[in-house]
């Protein structure tokens, strides 16, 4: 945890972890120690302190390290350097994740040199000034570079945590966690951080009814005209408003939902790939394979082998599935 730690993402990150443990009832998932640079309580941006259990030495045995954000109104570069030195305790190959402005610490440690990364859009000017060697993308929710992940503002911390749950334990568990936390089950990392008109005019129709209808009819060959009709809008108005509300085009959103539904079926059934493709609205098995591989980098067979009958699936197993196919 960092000095002047921003509290807002904390409940969401902790709740994501707690819900995962509750659903899985797995004691191996319960170890989530908090650590600071010296093991002392850390003051939050809301001006009260949080007690921690450990100093940096606990990082030696961690398999995932999450670096939270800090207040950026007057950041001291030396503080970032000090925090970055703590990451030297982290063993090689350990997954390191930053939320919001925590990316500054990873950059100060050199972990982002020459790599894609993101942070809160409001901090991008300073980030680029201090760390020009990082390929910063301020227009996405999170970036997954394998052993290093960075996410944007507070709510994007939920997205990256759900992404990690999905990678480690499968889509079914991740969707249970999301429903338990009452948040969207999947917002892909490339989705925009900043939606220009996130709240539609109260006097205007929105696209929520069309989205709900689409989710109930994914097995059908849905066209943009079908969705627009369910919102009583013209094609052009619907496409514009959909993008304003969701941050994705209708077509891209539909593919996202179909891939996620396919992942659930791959985990929970023995249906052939062609049958699953038909149930989620893809033209055939080839189309499902292409879209699944584009989304997560594995084939349906590899995904099923990774997440069927392996309740404590590790990241190493998932990585092995990628190599096998």
From TrEMBL:
This is Helix-turn-helix domain-containing protein. SUPFAM superfamilies: Class I glutamine amidotransferase-like, Homeodomain-like. Signal peptide: none annotated. One of its GO terms (molecular function) is sequence-specific DNA binding. Keywords: Transcription, Transcription regulation. Residues 208-306 form the HTH araC/xylS-type domain. It comes from Lentzea alba. It comes from the Bacteria. The lineage of its organism: Bacteria, Bacillati, Actinomycetota, Actinomycetes, Pseudonocardiales. Coiled coil: none annotated. The keyword Transcription regulation applies. The keyword Plastid does not apply.
């Amino acid at each position: 945890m960092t000095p002047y730690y921003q509290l807002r993402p904390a409940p969401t990150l902790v709740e994501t972890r707690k819900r995962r443990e509750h659903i899985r009832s797995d004691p191996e998932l319960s170890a989530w120690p908090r650590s600071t640079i010296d093991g002392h309580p850390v003051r939050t941006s809301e001006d009260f302190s949080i007690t921690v259990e450990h100093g940096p030495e606990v990082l030696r045995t961690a398999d995932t390290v999450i670096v939270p954000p800090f207040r950026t109104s007057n950041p001291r570069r030396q503080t970032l350097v000090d925090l970055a030195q703590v990451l030297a305790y982290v063993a090689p190959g350990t997954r390191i994740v930053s939320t919001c402005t925590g990316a500054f610490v990873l950059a100060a440690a050199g972990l982002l040199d020459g790599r894609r990364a993101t942070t809160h859009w409001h901090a991008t000017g300073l980030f680029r000034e201090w760390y020009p060697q990082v390929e910063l993308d301020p227009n996405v929710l999170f970036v997954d570079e394998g052993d290093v992940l960075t996410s944007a503002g507070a709510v994007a911390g939920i997205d990256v945590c759900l992404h990690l749950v999905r990678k480690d334990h499968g889509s079914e568990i991740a969707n249970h966690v999301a429903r338990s936390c009452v948040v969207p089950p999947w917002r892909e990392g490339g989705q925009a951080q900043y939606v220009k008109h996130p709240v539609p005019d109260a006097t205007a129709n929105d696209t929520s009814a069309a989205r709900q209808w689409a989710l109930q009819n994914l097995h059908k060959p849905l066209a943009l005209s079908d969705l627009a009709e369910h919102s009583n809008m013209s094609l052009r108005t619907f496409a514009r408003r959909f993008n304003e509300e969701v941050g994705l085009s209708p077509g891209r959103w539909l593919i996202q939902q179909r891939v996620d539904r396919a992942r659930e079926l791959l985990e929970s059934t023995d249906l052939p790939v062609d049958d699953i493709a038909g149930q989620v609205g893809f033209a055939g098995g080839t189309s499902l394979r292409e879209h699944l591989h584009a989304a997560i980098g594995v084939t349906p067979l590899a995904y099923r082998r990774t997440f069927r009958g392996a309740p404590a699936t590790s990241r190493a197993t998932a990585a092995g599935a990628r190599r096998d196919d």
